[in-house]
């Protein structure tokens, strides 16, 4: 069926809750969704494709037919949707691969034992503790145990490597007991290993209780040196435990979920807490959807379909669609009441921000950027109300000298960094004199002409996510009709300076947006405004200098504007022209014997007179 036939079929659907199943030409299921009213939801897919994101357009283009199942309630539709997606794994649904596997704590079979992290029990002689579902927990627990009980992490073999080299830095900062010195007995070393294993098996509370008992016993036996060592270990365990308690969380168990997108791809970050400690974390890359609230709801259903342990509280960075429906589903799955919260202030908001920062880091890594660079783009997106993170930003500034040498510079920031290869220079051609608004309009018009001509999405063939103009509301208003003329939608704002020529705010056609209180964003915009100003004024000075040189060359008989321009382009400077021999001048572009004689004699006679 074509899209018109599909829309006709969708418009005949009932206004009842249910599940719809999209199929391709081979009748394979490619998408499954639920709806409160089937007719309203399904018909949206087959309306104007301009309103859909790329992922949805791709899906719709592959739909040949669809089925539907009516349910008694929207909740039943949710249950059925989850079941069908799990059975069929449709291509265009969010599909989260449950590839965590199990992790183990490995204790080697050597005489001088070592503790390490393992994914498989591949050494029959070793001892394994586990399995554990969270690799994050196992890795962190082993790192903690090694630091607290001062276990070696080097590749040295004992006793073969005793006294062969000096102890490493870890010994000097009290993070290794340094058996390599040959001053520690095997029995003493085993005490460290056994204490670490007790800590790993029993956890913080049990470990502290056991060590406290051992410390008191050593003290009663007047073994004050051993008591002091155990006391220091207890202090280290408590200190490590305090570091793990990120904030004073009042909830016994909770998951925190945040989502960041660049418009095409997105990252879900999940932090899992128990007893105030972060015990697991996961991240998932997905294609971005049209509605981020709906996407978050879909992610939650997929995530807790592959994870059996539902927390008492789900803490999110945004409101979601069908919150009551999901709360009911999660509560039934857990067998206890589950709460979904979106905090605005306090410790819970701090947790959400921390989770979101890590999501930004994940997404930044895929773009080759740092967290700071990508974080400021996320902040810019929120402040300007953009639909996506502005990965590709073009900034423009005009420059002239009393109406002459009228030019414009364009600088590009990609993923928060300068992309100097994409910088462009424009000479204003449409008029003489000084008109900042007309100059900006001409440049944007020419730039969009080049975009429409381009066959590849590189250089001028790439549409910017954001345009920032050096100037205020007037410059923005001059450019908006140009965008409308080309029927191209690009968010466009101005960068306003104060009387001291420092960045003050961002301005749209509707008014100013203050950025002074957002330090990172303020610094980013200020640097961009300084960079585009530097680039534009540098180009204007370059042209002025070239014209000054050309005017001095045109004083030479037989040298006109075109010949002077060709000479400067070939020799680069007046000094190089003056020092050139006759043959070099004769072989230069646009030169002949008469003009070469004239130029050579001009500079030769001048040099002789000096």
Automatic annotation (TrEMBL):
InterPro entries linked to this entry: DisA/LigA_HHH, GIY-YIG_endonuc, GIY-YIG_endonuc_sf, GIY-YIG_UvrC_Cho, Hlx-hairpin-Hlx_DNA-bd_motif, RuvA_2-like, UVR_dom, UVR_dom_sf
Q: How does it assemble?
A: Interacts with UvrB in an incision complex.
HAMAP family for this protein = UvrC
What this chain does, per the entry, is described as: The UvrABC repair system catalyzes the recognition and processing of DNA lesions. UvrC both incises the 5' and 3' sides of the lesion. The N-terminal half is responsible for the 3' incision and the C-terminal half is responsible for the 5' incision.
**Spans traversing the lipid bilayer:** none
Which ranges carry the GIY-YIG domain? Answer: 15-94
Q: Where is the UVR domain?
A: 205-240
- Protein family per UniProt: Belongs to the UvrC family.
Extract the Pfam families matched here. GIY-YIG, HHH_2, UVR, UvrC_RNaseH, UvrC_RNaseH_dom
Q: Can you name this protein?
A: UvrABC system protein C
Annotated keywords: Cytoplasm, DNA damage, DNA excision, DNA repair, Excision nuclease, SOS response
- Indicate whether DNA repair appears among the record's keywords: yes
Protein origin, superkingdom: Bacteria
Q: What is its main location?
A: cytoplasm
Entry's CDD domains?
GIY-YIG_UvrC_Cho
Record's subcellular location: Cytoplasm
Q: Where is the UvrC family homology region profile domain?
A: 256-483
Q: Does the keyword Glycoprotein apply?
A: no
């Amino acid at each position: 069926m074509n899209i018109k036939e599909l829309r006709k079929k969708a418009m005949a659907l009932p206004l009842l809750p249910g599940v719809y199943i999209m199929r391709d030409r081979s009748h394979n299921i490619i998408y499954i969704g639920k709806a409160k009213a089937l007719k309203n939801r399904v018909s949206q897919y087959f309306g104007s494709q301009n309103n859909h994101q790329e992922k949805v357009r791709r899906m719709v283009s592959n739909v040949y037919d669809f089925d539907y199942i009516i349910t008694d309630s929207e909740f039943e539709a949710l249950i059925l949707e989850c079941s069908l997606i799990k059975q069929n794994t449709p291509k265009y649904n969010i599909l989260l691969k449950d590839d965590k596997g199990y992790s183990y704590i490995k204790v080697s079979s050597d005489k001088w034992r070592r503790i390490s992290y393992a994914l498989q029990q591949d050494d029959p002689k070793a001892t394994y503790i586990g399995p554990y579902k969270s690799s994050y927990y196992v890795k962190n627990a082993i790192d903690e145990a090694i630091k607290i009980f001062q276990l070696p992490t080097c590749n040295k073999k004992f006793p073969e490597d005793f006294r062969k080299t000096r102890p490493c830095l870890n010994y000097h900062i009290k993070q290794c007991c340094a058996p390599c010195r040959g001053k520690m007995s095997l029995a003493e070393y085993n005490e460290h290993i056994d204490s670490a294993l007790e800590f790993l098996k029993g956890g913080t509370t049990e470990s502290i209780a056991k060590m406290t008992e051992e410390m008191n016993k050593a003290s009663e036996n007047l073994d004050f040196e051993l008591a002091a060592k155990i006391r220091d270990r207890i202090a280290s365990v408590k200190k490590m435990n305090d570091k793990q308690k990120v904030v004073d969380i009042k909830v016994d168990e909770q998951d925190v979920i945040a989502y960041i997108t660049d418009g095409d791809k997105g990252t879900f970050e999940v932090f899992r807490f128990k007893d105030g400690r972060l015990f697991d974390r996961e991240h998932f890359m997905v294609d971005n959807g049209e509605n981020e609230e709906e996407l978050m709801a879909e992610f939650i259903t997929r995530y807790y379909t592959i994870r059996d342990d539902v927390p008492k509280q789900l803490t999110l960075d945004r409101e979601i669609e069908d919150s009551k429906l999901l709360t009911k589903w999660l509560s039934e799955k857990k067998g206890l009441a589950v709460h979904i919260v979106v905090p605005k202030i306090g410790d819970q908001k701090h947790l959400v921000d921390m989770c979101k920062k890590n999501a930004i880091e994940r997404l930044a890594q895929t773009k080759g950027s740092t967290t700071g660079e990508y974080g400021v783009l996320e902040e810019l997106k929120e402040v300007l109300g953009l639909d996506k993170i502005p990965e590709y930003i073009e900034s423009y500034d005009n420059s002239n000298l009393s109406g002459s040498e009228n030019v414009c510079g364009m600088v590009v920031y990609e993923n928060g960094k300068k992309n100097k290869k994409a910088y462009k220079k424009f000479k204003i051609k449409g008029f003489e004199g000084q008109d900042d608004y007309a100059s900006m309009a001409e440049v944007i018009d020419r730039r969009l002409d080049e975009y429409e001509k381009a066959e590849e999405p590189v250089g001028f063939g790439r549409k910017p996510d954001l345009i920032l103009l050096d100037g205020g509301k007037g410059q923005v208003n001059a450019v908006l009709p140009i965008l409308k003329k080309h029927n191209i939608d690009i968010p466009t704002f101005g960068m306003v300076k104060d009387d001291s020529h420092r960045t003050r705010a961002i301005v749209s056609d509707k008014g100013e947006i203050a950025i002074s209180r957002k330090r990172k964003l303020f610094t980013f915009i200020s640097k961009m405004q300084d960079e585009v100003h530097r680039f534009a004024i540098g180009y204007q000075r370059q042209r002025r200098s070239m014209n000054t040189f050309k005017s001095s060359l045109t004083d030479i008989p037989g040298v006109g504007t075109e010949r002077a321009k060709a000479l400067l382009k070939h020799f680069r400077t007046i000094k190089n022209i003056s020092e050139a021999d006759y043959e070099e001048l004769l072989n230069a572009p646009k030169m002949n014997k008469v003009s070469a004689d004239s130029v050579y004699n001009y500079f030769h006679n001048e040099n002789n007179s000096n």
